[in-house]
Design brief:
Length: 441
């Protein structure tokens, strides 16, 4: 019995060995050639895809099936040494470019000091923090692109717009007068001689002209010539005397207003002449004849005075500082011949007032000195959307405070107001001071 069982075990072992040898021969002859054939076909497909241009590759990336196959191929390329290195690199570059495009970008948070300023802006402006993406540098490289404000064009336009006024001023005629200063009595003598080629204001084709004379900034003392009936070339030949100290002559201005007299209605203004520097026209030691063109005007221009202030902007901090220095020759608003002036500064955006700040009140003076700083927090990206309205007010204990005069500075302001603003932006962190004439509201 022992020999029979041992023989059975030997037969079973020999049978298993024969089966193993048969399976090894079958794998060697059939499975290995078929596997090599599949790998070589996959290599051919990958090489053909790597040789395609970028546009075909982008189209394949859009397809979800192609993306899954491509990612599977890349995984194989990392583990299989049979795929060429250039094919692996090309496939990796495509995947890296795709992930770079899909990467999200975030904007930097704006300064907390400017949150209150942006809250007051109109909603349609969509104020946001500065974008540091790829598009803004392209805009910055084109400073003359369509849509960008060009101050020089507006300046040229304002110069051109003055031409019609100059043409109209030539048709208002001329006036002849003389100046002489008496040093002993400290008196300035103004002699109105004649006028020529005045415009006709009556239906009959003539005028009834007369002249008012002021020595600004004093408007309380005024003189007036006689009315000459029905003439466009009147001869006045009248003298008027203004007591004035010699040291004040440099700051005084001669103002001549020509009117047409009307018995039953308001007198019509023909024009005016303003001589700012008396010493340029004459040495005043002897009587000198002066001819001036009569400038066209419909109302008397009132000298409201001037204000001096400085502007300074810090781009990094987004801080605008306006320093009110002083005023001079303000208009008298009280019966005492003086005023109680203070300065109010308003921050405007598209005609809407966002903030306002005031200086202290100076009592009983027409030449106040302040030296007070007013600060506004404005982001750099909003500087071309805002402007400042500077108002000189007269304080009244009873009733409403009265406006003496105003001036405006900003990109959209006119004349000196625009030039002062542009000079401040051109020289950041540097205070720029100028005198500004006050005008009526």
């Amino acid at each position: 019995e022992l020999s029979v069982s041992l023989l059975a075990v030997i037969v079973i072992v020999c049978g298993l060995a024969l089966v193993a040898v048969f399976l090894f021969l079958f794998w060697k002859l059939c499975w290995v050639p078929w596997r090599n054939k599949v790998i070589s076909s996959n290599l051919a497909v990958l090489q053909s895809e790597a040789g395609c241009n970028k546009e075909n590759m982008a189209d394949k990336l859009k397809d979800a099936g192609a993306i899954s196959f491509l990612e599977a191929a890349v995984k194989i390329s990392h583990t299989s040494p049979d795929i060429p290195a250039e094919v692996q690199m090309s496939m990796k570059d495509h995947i890296m470019r795709r992930t770079r495009i899909q990467r999200q970008t975030t904007e930097p948070a704006s300064s907390t000091r400017h949150i209150s300023f942006k809250r007051h802006l109109p909603r349609q402006m969509h104020v946001s923090s500065m974008d540091y993406g790829m598009d803004p540098p392209a805009v910055a490289e084109q400073p003359t692109s369509i849509g960008r404000i060009k101050p020089e064009l507006y300046k040229q336009k304002s110069v051109d717009s003055e031409d019609p006024k100059k043409e109209a001023a030539k048709t208002c005629g001329k006036i002849n007068f003389t100046l002489k200063y008496d040093y002993e009595n400290e008196t300035l003598t103004v002699r109105i001689l004649r006028a020529f080629e005045l415009p006709a204001k009556d239906f009959c084709g003539s005028s009834d002209p007369y002249v008012k004379i002021y020595l600004l900034p004093d408007r309380k003392r005024k003189f007036q010539t006689r009315v000459h009936r029905k003439t466009l070339n009147p001869t006045f030949d009248e003298s008027f005397h203004f007591p004035v100290p010699h040291e004040e002559l440099a700051s005084r201005k001669l103002h001549l207003s020509v009117f047409d007299f009307d018995r039953f209605s308001r007198h019509d203004m023909i024009g005016e002449v303003i001589l700012e520097n008396l010493f340029e026209a004459s040495d005043l030691s002897r009587e000198t004849s002066i001819w001036k063109d009569i400038q066209y005007a419909t109302t008397e221009s009132v000298d409201l005075g001037e204000i001096m202030f400085s502007l300074c902007y810090l781009p990094t901090a987004g801080r605008l500082t306006l320093t009110v220095i002083k005023c001079r020759n303000l208009k008298a608003m009280d019966i005492t011949g003086y005023s109680d002036p203070y300065v109010k500064v308003s921050l405007l955006c598209d005609g809407r007032r966002l903030k306002k700040k005031k200086t202290t009140i100076k009592k009983n003076t027409l030449n106040p000195t302040y030296n007070e700083a007013i600060i506004f927090d404005i982001p750099p990206e909003n500087m071309d959307q805002v402007s400042l309205l500077i108002s000189v007010m007269d304080y009244d204990r009873v009733g409403h405070n009265e406006i003496i005069g105003v001036c405006r500075v900003g990109v959209n302001a006119e004349g000196l107001g625009r030039d002062h603003w542009n000079e401040m932006l051109a020289y950041p962190r540097k205070p720029i001071a100028h005198w500004h004439p006050l005008v009526e509201v």
